[in-house]
């Protein structure tokens, strides 16, 4: 039978990793070493491509760092490219019960790497193809949970990177953002009000987003680039920042890093040193391959920390440095050939300068620029915009947690309609339980019950921070969007339940079950006596009881948005 092979590599050599035969193109030699049970490291420095197949037995999903666990694609599916400014170099073929079938990660986090994976219809196999300039990759065929395989890739990248700046504790604590709540209608007085209210509820940082640099309210980027405050809204930026910091809140400021708008002085200054013009954004994308471009951007962004006293920066749109269809050739005067190398130099030099003033600098990046090559320059990474979509926020934050290594994972900003019941406010928060919540509603306009839900769940985030963010993360049923997620350490197991699924009670330690499902009947499987406490979405005690767990099922009613706490006697 003839098999259609759209990604034929031409002349190849072969090596083996366990039962898998790998075809390598362009490799004069290759070394394969087993580094753990079912895990191999393939080092083929001259290779430009690698390809192998695995049987599609019990396969349920194909996981990528951009799209999470979705359908199992056909062989003719479009390639997925990872580079410094977009994506992360890892994919995973997922089997029954979330088991890893084959996970592959590439060591090179800066240069572009192309992944193609898909089902060969004639054979029922799944073909993997990698393209890159020299390949060193880790191949996990262990059968462990896919989440552990992906996390293992992140641990490998971290070990390869060596010493990285420590992530400050504040990067893992709740945040208030002005974007959804205020959009461009920001000003010193309104920001200070929200900062005070947010601090009272349990937030530790405020991020002021787009609008601080312009009086224009058209939601475009024509006024980005010079990065000077709108003096009508912020007449004394340094004094304003000091007042917010006196509340005990850290202050971060938004920058659309690549953009220089048509109404900025810098627009004419850098004519000929831009990658392209974006008509729909009224702005050009600066070319970081020019030293004077990098120096200009560093000076503009450093002003926030050095002159105004900011604690950090929200650096937006790093992915827009990449040009769809391929980057243009560098113009005369460029000091490096690749755009991603220019971005790396820009972020490296900016980081070095700012840390001289703020050793515990806070820097936020977001999807899709999540490459481990950016870990030295950011300690916060946010799920991309998904307003009022709690399920999407859940999936994106869990996906990020698996591959983010040492970087604190943040939710997209949470907002809700003014008429939202308190139970649904809690559901929004539970959906991002395993990340850092960013809140973006007008806190002065919230009803008492909404504030009670917010205060209670932010308290849960803070009280159980270690388990939620540093414990072993086990998301279940990735093909269904993680309807149950668990984090555990030696102290506790915390389960978030988004569908009416049963919960296994651990043999030791406390168990917390956050119920975001509409069904209040939480089914527990375990053995032995225990004490149960149930609170509603506002944190009010509903009931306590002694529970005699047996080998069968026990049912405890937990209202939607509520929390069950089980402690062993």
From TrEMBL:
SUPFAM superfamilies: (Trans)glycosidases. CDD domains: GH36. GO terms for biological process: carbohydrate catabolic process. It holds the Pfam family Melibiase. GO terms for molecular function: alpha-galactosidase activity. It comes from the Bacteria. This is Alpha-galactosidase. It comes from Nonomuraea montanisoli. The lineage of its organism: Bacteria, Bacillati, Actinomycetota, Actinomycetes, Streptosporangiales.
